[in-house]
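Changelog entry: the TSA: Tityus bahiensis Tbah00160 mRNA sequence record was regenerated in this release. Current contents:
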Amino acid sequence: FASFLLFATVSAIPNGRVHVVFPAVETSRSGEKTLKLRAFDRDIELNLQPAGEILAKNFGFMDDDHRLFYPVDVKNLQRKLYKNSANGAALLIDEDGPVTIEGNLNAKVRIAPYESGGMDEAGRIAHWIEEEEEERNKKAYLRDDSTYFSNLWQQLPPDIDTENTKRMDREGKCIVIEILSVTDSNFTKRFSNYEELTEYITLTYAGVQTIMDTLELGIKLRLIGIHAFTNETEPPFIESNAIPGHERYVQYNKVLSSMNRYYCEHDYGLAKDADVIILTNDRLLAGWDGGPDINTNIGGVAFLSGACGPCSKVAVSAHSVSYDIRVILLTHETAHLIGIDDDGEGNSKNCTNGKDSVMGRSDSPLHPIFQNFRDFSDHAFSECSKQDVKYFLSTSKAECLFEECPNDNITSLFET
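Regenerated C-alpha cells:
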C-alpha cells in the first residue's frame, strides 16, 4: 500500500463557482446540530442528523489474501458523519478544535476547509464552497465526446436465476445491505492514506443512502469494508480486459464476469460477509463487439437481483469526480442488485421514462444524470421500482438482507 499518491482531483482545489465562507455549527440543548453559513447572497441553515450508522462497527480493509486490518479509527469517523436528507448533504464535521467541515451541502455544492483563508474574529475557520459545473457540458465524467451514458444490467446465469423463490416470514426484521466497496488501482492511488479513501467512499455512499430512502422501505446501507487494489495487488480481471487498440477502455461485461468469477472463487473474509460487492472503477468502461468501433457510453453494469448470491452479487460503477454523478451511478447499480429494473424495461416496462426516476432509461435526455438538480430530493425511485424491490425482498434470494432490528419500532414490509 506504499504506492498511494495524492491526486489533485480529490484534493481541496476548487475549479467552479467558488465562495469563501466562515461556517458555524450550533448545538442545541437537545443535542441537535445546525450548520449555518452565508453564500450565494443568502443565509443557509441545515439541520443535521448523525450519519455514522452507514459504517459497520467492525469496518476494515481487506488485503490481497483477504485478511482484515483496521487502519481507520471507525468510532471517530462515525461521530464526525452528518447528513441532511432533504438537501442530500453528506458532511464530515470535526469539532476537535476550530470546526472544520468537508463534503457536500447538496448534490451540486461542495465544501472544504480553505487552508490559506485564515480565521474570522469569531474564531471560525475559512472554508470554500464550490458550485459544480454541469457535467453534461464538461463531459468530464466519461472523458470523451459522448452526450449520454448507458447503464447495462445482466441477467443472472440460468442456474441462479431459476432458484426457487418463496415468500418469507420476516416480521420484526430490518433490511440492511452490507456493502464491500472495491477500488481499482487507478482510483486507490488518488488518495494519500487509508483515512482519506475511507472518508471519500463513506460520504459517497451516504448520498446513495439518501436516494435509497425514497423507496420508503426503511432499507439501510452499511459499509463493512474496502478492498483497495494497488498496482502490486490488483487481480488481472480489470487490466486484462482492456480493449485492443483502445487500451484506455476496459470491456465492461468482461470486467463484470471476471470480477464475478474472482469473488466466487475467493468467497471468504469480507467478500463472504458482504451482501453486495461493488467496484468503483477509475478506468473507462466501454462495450466492444470485436469490430473497429467501441461504445464508450457506459456508466456501470450489475447482475439484476444478484444480491446475496456468492456468485452473482457484484457490480461495476464508473467513477466520476462529480459527487452527483457518482452517487447516481452507484445508486443505480445497487438498485439493480436488489431486483430493480430500468423503468420501461423488463418487469418495469409499463413505467414511463420520467425525469424524476433514478431508474429512467439512461439513454434518454430526461434521465436524472442530465437534469440541473440542486439536491437529491429531485432524485427518486418510481412506483415500479418500489414494486420491483418489494418482490425481490419477498423471495428467498433476499434472505441475507434481513437482520434483527435494534428496537421494536418496526413497520413490516408486507403490511397491507
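DSSP finds nine helices and 22 strands in the chain.
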